[in-house]
Amino acid sequence: MEIGIAQVQTYLFHLFFAFSISFLFFSLIILLLRLRPWCNCHLCKTYLSSSWHTKFTNLSDWYTHLLKESAAGTVHIHVLGTTITANPANVEHMLKTRFENYPKGKQFSSILGDFLGHGIFNSDGDIWRFQRKMASLELGSVSVRSYAFKIVSTEINDRLIPFLESISGRNDSGIVDIQDLFRRFAFDTICKISFGLDPGCVDLNLPMSDFANAFDTASRLSAVRATTTAPIVWKLKRFLNVGSEKELKHAIQMVDNLAQAVIRERRKIGFSTGHDLLSRFMGAIQEQVDDKFLRDIVVSFLLAGRDTVASGLTTFYLLLSQNPAVAAAIREEIEINKKDDDLCPGQLQNMHYVHAALYESLRLYPPVQFDSKFSAEDDVLPDGTFIQKGTRVMYHPYAMGRMESIWGEDCLEFKPERWLCDGVFTPESLFKYPVFQAGPRVCLGKELSIMEMKTVIVAIMHRFNIEVLMSKEKPQFALGLTASIKGGVPARVLHQN
């Protein structure tokens, strides 16, 4: 008797369903057993008395609560098999002193492997070192920074400002989701800087491109994998090609298609004539690398250059709307330094208060709220916490920005002055402020990202008021590899008087 493909798929689906029910039942039993060692400790009582989501808007706020309750600023979540720290000494130990003992790890690489491949954010060892070296040479060059500044300025003057001008001063029609707007803007600029490609997403009358939507979906569903306690669940769904894994596979295929098209175009016209980052990478390598390797570089550029900038700008204006005195101080500095509508890098560098306000915003709302490593060998953190080989160790910039032990009793206040010394911006230790990571893996695109965000802030605030129409309660964050606010951030755009 012949069995059709549809029958096989139906059989596998029912098998998967039965397995899932059984797995959840046994997982619950194991969960209860694993909770038993917590029964007499304060953190256990907090956890068992109520679910985190009944007391906290976001999971990161719950982690922050636990870390504040810990004298060492470190906790171990037995259910997740994860150690979480907000202790700067531990962060320096992981990211610098014992760097080789805390790689991304195979576990993390497998979770994001389908989406990020062997890109710089998802690799270790020689593959990471090679990409790191190439990226350092290119992103650190004056020509790349000049090229990027020109693109950002052009995108602001030709698209962002005209759009805001067209809606400013209206009533309901003057309301825009600034999170969506900044995501579109950042997507356009990173595509131009990285590939010489112009998606034209800032026009809000047009839907977001299929590629941008696919990229969002791939990021969101990859994060779903990362939050799944048992990897066997998503791996089985991927094997059967069902549910979220089927959707993820389709999204990644769309991402791959565009990445491959960009690479083919670069090979066709020759990379020696291009100023974009991909062309410079291909020219610097001076050998025929496979398209899969270049595809992973393309996706890494997009993840770093779009999501972090959009997230940083969105939460900046969210905080600014709640702190009019800071907005007034920023405008005063802009008026002193900005002589005309054309902004140059020198003027931007002199705006120390703008820089401080941006860093303060990123302290409270880092685009990447936490980062994970896996211990290669047994280790002991500086605070005395024992780390068993294979343990997931997470440092938490979001929680660190809310620790009185690090920033003082006013840690929850939006206070740019904490970054200024005699009016000059003065950075803190990156291990105290790991928003851009630190040590050998410190973000190479940090200066480009700061430049882009500062340029946008100055250009907008010179002309407009952005009134965010949200309550002052903590925003709820959507699941994703970078922080984004659920439901968007509606705001009214008004002309600056």
From TrEMBL:
> In the UniProt record, does the keyword Iron occur?
yes
Going by the entry's taxonomy, the superkingdom of the source organism is recorded as Eukaryota
User: Is Transmembrane one of the keywords UniProt gives this record?
Assistant: yes
Tell me the classification of the organism that encodes this protein: Eukaryota, Viridiplantae, Streptophyta, Embryophyta, Tracheophyta
Among Pfam families, the record links this protein to: p450
Q: Which cofactor does it need?
A: heme
Q: Where are the transmembrane segments?
A: 12-35
Question: What's the protein here called?
Answer: Cytochrome P450
* Keyword terms: Heme, Iron, Membrane, Metal-binding, Oxidoreductase, Transmembrane, Transmembrane helix
What are the binding positions for heme in this chain? C443
The similarity comment for this entry is: Belongs to the cytochrome P450 family.
Q: What's a single GO MF annotation on this record?
A: heme binding
